[in-house]
């Protein structure tokens, strides 16, 4: 049989959603992909047992989707708009690339930044960084180019796990936070819909844990699939989780015996014993300016790092000290009274009783007490466990937060409360407890533990954007102004996408006082993202896109964003293109591996039509813009995922044009050398056979605790003195520049957060839009579906067929009794509206949702994507506003909106 007709099994990876990457093999018969199978050879190394989820089974249909864009195209209708047919016509690759290069070369001549100081080139990529595993060496092109604005938001970031990303990384190097599911025995999950969103590894780990006896309490307004297979469902009122969590802390601090907390952990491993002065800042040693603690051994105040310290966890002490505030101002000097940070917290949390919380969050006080007591009973304070020969604390309790709980107003307070709950029983970064997975802001990004370095005051370092007079700047590098407005966003490669990415869109119409006028980018690249569907205020966003002068979209099918493109480039998709990525270690939510290494995605089948591999497109762009030397230099430095020169050899490419396979062959060799400790340097052909290569990753590295102990550092909890200072400084800088529009956000910088009515801004939005809140009595929410990867695979018939068999996918979920009161029957046409806009859909009646809540799964409302445009599903994003009032201090908002509901008369 000739090779062409042979049956082959091709190993590759899937990273269609952030819960990956997962490993699979593709069966190829006669050159045609016919089946997706697990990668059985990887069963022993992959936390999902070498298996993939339903979405990956859609890859065969994805490849052969008849609606794919298979040639480069250009728009021939100069008018852009939703109602305008772009009249795309096929063109050659050469014409497409010549056109793009002409725009880029004009920019290089004119200057890379415009009159406002913003980059003239912008680029948006979607879904939590997953496009990076499909875009080959394009990052090397962008690096060679120079300044690029990557802050035009696309739904990820500010609608995503946002507060958790920033605060989580600040407190425990947890860009993503996860329970240590294999050991955890009691999990409070506030709107974390892990059975839909956790991917193969998440679902598998949780099912095993539940079979083992882990009790999961699902706190959320609607009964998700996760709630349905939890031991208990607590139907909380939307956006009130902070009240619930604060009351849990209250019970732990005011109703249970103090000895049931981990007092040793609090005293030795956190900032709890630090003395807080009358103005709320730490009391410091006069000579060294180190924070002071009360030493019970000597009966004296000593610096936090004094040898042999016996920290007093609670109490008030008069000490000779300095109190230093914002901008290094000395606020007090001499004999000052200090309370320990722990005592401050105990006093502060007194007000948040379960009875108070019941009023706010609609969870009975008795339920709050039950959960708090079960949490403490399961915490095993004092017990230890051996991991890789080391004895560590064993604390099998955790709290996880879903995306709507941890972004927008209240996100900070929920993240703080969750982390404090872990801290109180010593369950932070230890086996069984709450642990982080990935770092994205601190460096080095690939090594979480190495990123832990000593910072100020005995805590970890963190790359906060400067707020001091000399270094803070009112002239942002990109349009969303993350560096100016959000100290916690840092300034690394991910920071642009983690800033307030809706500002880039909003400020196009009106830039607030003090910032340089926000401009349209001359060239906008879009890849694997669909902000015209996934962001808020999608109709408004589409109108703005229509004003962009030159848009280049890498396209799979036509969609609502590339509808506004000037050039469409046909993308070689998942089974057609080539890339090597890092796998293993600890990753997004539940991807905890006992191995680390690399996996290859390779062309299992020939590319269809004229679709082209991203690496070839990037190399071509580099050539046509005269940037090849810089582009190759970037690849050599690691823009392809691994530096080509390292301790195990030099695989660097010379500074000239290379074809795709030559580039990836060099990257493969460097990866092989790294993973084998220099014993091998296998090239691309070897990786095509093997698909994946790993080495062991010690389980002890899942936990940050040993590193904190080894580096003699404390977790910066519970008291947020540093953030309070940063917030005060930021406020001064803004006011010095007559910028007052961020004042509400500045209120979020608090040493001990207050619990407020965090839902209020969304209710106020109704008035803003000209309505009466009483007439818009429902909360419209959204949730994940296991079948869909955002809106990325909505065009696959098979995915739709599977999804429609799962409750809730055919319309808007409404509480049965409430619907009956409104005369709405299952399947009825309904209208969901804000004062500004309305959408239509079908009613899905379910008992498992609060009467004041509606739920629209996923993100739909497509009007251009083939297949999906005929679904007729209501979209939350059409109704949700994009607004400064709905933006918190980290720059995020949330996916919820106040609406009315009625039966639609046809
Ligand atoms: N209503 C609602 N909105 C939400 C959310 C929600 O839960 N509900 N979640 C929010 C969150 S957390 C996130 S992270 C964002 C994600 O939102 P986005 O990052 O914008 O992701 P998608 O909507 O999946 O857009 C992916 C696009 O890529 C295209 N595509 C798919 N495969 C390929 C390919 O192989 N090649 C090319 N070139 N293109 C491809 C698809 O057609 C689609 O248009 O959405 C946010 N928006
Ligand atoms: N299959 C699949 N998996 C995915 C993705 C995907 O598109 N498809 N996307 C990935 C991405 S980018 C993200 S960000 C994650 C998101 O992962 P999750 O956060 O787990 O996602 P959702 O299902 O959107 O979470 C919504 C849940 O929160 C509840 N909820 C809404 N508002 C509130 C509230 O105020 N309080 C409480 N307690 N609950 C509330 C809803 O009822 C719903 O069950 O999923 C990731 N995993
Ligand atoms: S969970 Fe599914 S879609 Fe997401 S990366 Fe894994 S296999 Fe792919
Ligand atoms: Mo997300």
Automatic annotation (TrEMBL):
InterPro entries listed in its UniProt record: Asp_de-COase-like_dom_sf, MoPterin_dinucl-bd_dom, Mopterin_OxRdtase, Phenylacetyl-CoA-OR_N, Prok_Mopterin_Oxidored
Pfam families xref list: Molybdopterin, Molydop_binding
CDD domains, per the entry: MopB_Phenylacetyl-CoA-OR (cd02760)
Protein keywords: 4Fe-4S, Iron, Iron-sulfur, Metal-binding, Molybdenum, Oxidoreductase, Signal
Record's keyword annotation contains Iron-sulfur: yes
SUPFAM superfamilies associated with the record: ADC-like, Formate dehydrogenase/DMSO reductase, domains 1-3
Record domain Molybdopterin oxidoreductase: where: 68-624
A Gene Ontology molecular function term of the record: 4 iron, 4 sulfur cluster binding
Family: Belongs to the prokaryotic molybdopterin-containing oxidoreductase family.
Protein name per the record: Molybdopterin-dependent oxidoreductase
Native organism: Ramlibacter albus
High-level lineage: Bacteria, Pseudomonadati, Pseudomonadota, Betaproteobacteria, Burkholderiales
């Amino acid at each position: 049989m000739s090779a062409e007709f042979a049956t082959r099994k091709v190993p590759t990876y899937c990273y269609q959603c952030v819960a990956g990457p997962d490993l699979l093999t593709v069966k190829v018969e006669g050159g045609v992909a016919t089946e997706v199978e697990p990668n059985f050879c990887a069963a022993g190394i992959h936390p999902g047992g070498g298996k993939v989820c339903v979405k990956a089974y859609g890859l065969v249909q994805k490849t052969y989707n008849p609606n794919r864009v298979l040639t480069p195209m250009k728009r021939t209708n100069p008018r852009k708009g939703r109602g305008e047919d772009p009249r795309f016509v096929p063109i050659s690759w050469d014409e497409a690339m010549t056109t793009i290069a002409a725009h880029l070369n004009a920019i290089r001549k004119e200057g890379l930044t415009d009159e406002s100081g913003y980059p003239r080139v912008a680029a948006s990529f979607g879904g939590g960084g997953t496009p990076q595993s499909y875009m080959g060496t394009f990052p090397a092109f962008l690096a060679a180019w120079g300044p690029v604005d990557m802050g035009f938001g696309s739904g990820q970031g500010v609608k995503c796990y946002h507060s958790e990303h920033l605060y989580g990384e600040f407190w425990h190097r947890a860009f993503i936070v996860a329970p240590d599911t294999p050991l955890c025995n009691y999990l409070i999950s506030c709107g974390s819909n892990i059975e839909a969103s956790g991917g193969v590894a998440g679902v598998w780990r949780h099912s095993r844990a539940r079979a083992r006896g882990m009790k999961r309490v699902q706190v959320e307004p609607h009964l998700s699939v996760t709630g349905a297979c939890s031991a208990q469902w607590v139907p909380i009122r939307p956006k009130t989780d902070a009240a619930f969590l604060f009351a849990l802390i209250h019970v732990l601090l005011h109703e249970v015996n103090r000895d049931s907390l981990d007092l040793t952990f609090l005293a030795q491993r956190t900032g709890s014993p630090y003395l807080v002065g009358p103005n709320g800042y730490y009391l410091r040693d006069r000579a060294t300016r180190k924070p002071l603690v009360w030493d019970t051994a000597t009966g004296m105040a000593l610096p936090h790092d004094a040898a042999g310290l016996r920290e007093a966890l609670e109490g008030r002490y008069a000490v000779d000290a300095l109190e230093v505030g914002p901008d290094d101002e000395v606020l007090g000097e001499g004999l000052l009274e200090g309370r320990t940070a722990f005592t401050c917290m105990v006093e502060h949390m007194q007000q948040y009783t379960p009875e108070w919380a019941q009023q706010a969050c609609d969870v009975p006080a008795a339920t709050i007490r039950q959960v708090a007591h079960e949490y403490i009973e399961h915490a095993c304070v004092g017990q230890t466990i051996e991991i890789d020969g080391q004895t560590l604390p064993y604390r099998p309790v955790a709290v996880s937060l879903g995306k709507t709980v941890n972004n927008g107003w209240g996100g900070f307070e929920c993240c703080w409360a969750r982390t404090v709950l872990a801290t109180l029983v010593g369950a932070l970064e230890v086996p069984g407890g709450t642990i982080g997975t990935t770092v994205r802001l601190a460096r080095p990004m690939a090594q979480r533990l190495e990123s832990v370095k000593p910072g100020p005051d005995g805590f970890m370092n963190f790359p906060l954007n400067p707020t001091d007079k000399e270094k803070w700047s009112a002239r942002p590098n990109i349009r969303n102004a993350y560096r100016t407005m959000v100290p916690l966003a840092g300034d690394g490669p991910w920071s642009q996408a983690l800033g307030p990415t809706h500002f880039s869109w909003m400020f196009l119409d009106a830039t607030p006082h003090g910032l340089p006028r926000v401009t349209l980018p001359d060239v906008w690249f879009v890849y694997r993202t669909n902000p015209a569907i996934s962001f808020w205020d999608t109709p408004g966003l589409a109108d703005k896109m229509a004003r962009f002068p030159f848009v280049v979209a890498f396209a799979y099918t036509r969609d609502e964003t590339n509808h506004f493109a000037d050039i469409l480039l046909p993308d070689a998709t998942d089974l057609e293109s080539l890339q090597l990525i890092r796998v293993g270690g600890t990753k997004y939510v539940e991807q905890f591996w006992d191995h680390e290494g690399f996996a290859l995605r390779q062309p299992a089948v020939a590319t269809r039509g004229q679709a082209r591999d991203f690496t070839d497109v990037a190399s071509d762009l580099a050539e046509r813009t005269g940037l090849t030397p810089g582009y190759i230099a970037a690849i050599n430095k690691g823009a392809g995922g691994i530096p080509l020169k390292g301790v195990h050899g030099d695989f660097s490419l010379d500074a000239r044009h290379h074809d795709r396979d030559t580039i990836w062959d060099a990257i493969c060799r460097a990866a092989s050398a790294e993973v084998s400790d220099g014993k091998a340097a296998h090239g691309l052909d070897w990786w095509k056979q093997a698909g994946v290569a790993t080495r062991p990753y010690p389980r002890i590295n899942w936990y940050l605790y040993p590193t904190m102990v080894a580096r003699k550092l404390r977790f910066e909890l519970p008291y947020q003195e540093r953030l309070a200072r940063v917030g005060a400084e930021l406020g001064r800088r803004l006011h010095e520049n007559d910028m007052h529009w961020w004042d509400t956000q500045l209120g979020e910088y608090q040493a001990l957060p207050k619990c407020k009515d965090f839902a209020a801004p969304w209710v106020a939005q109704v008035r803003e839009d000209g309505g009466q809140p009483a007439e818009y009595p429902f909360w419209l929410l959204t949730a994940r579906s296991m079948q869909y990867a955002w809106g990325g695979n909505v065009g696959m018939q098979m995915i739709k067929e599977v999804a429609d068999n799962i409750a809730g996918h055919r319309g808007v979920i409404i509480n049965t009794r409430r619907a009956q009161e409104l005369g709405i029957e299952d399947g009825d046409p309904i209208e969901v509206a804000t004062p500004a806009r309305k959408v239509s859909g079908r009613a899905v009646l379910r008992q498992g949702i609060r009467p004041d809540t509606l739920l629209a799964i996923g993100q739909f409302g497509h009007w251009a994507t083939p297949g999906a445009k005929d679904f007729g599903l209501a979209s939350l994003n059409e109704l949700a506003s994009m607004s400064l009032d709905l933006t918190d201090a980290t720059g995020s908002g949330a996916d919820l909106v106040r609406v009315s509901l009625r039966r639609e008369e046809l």
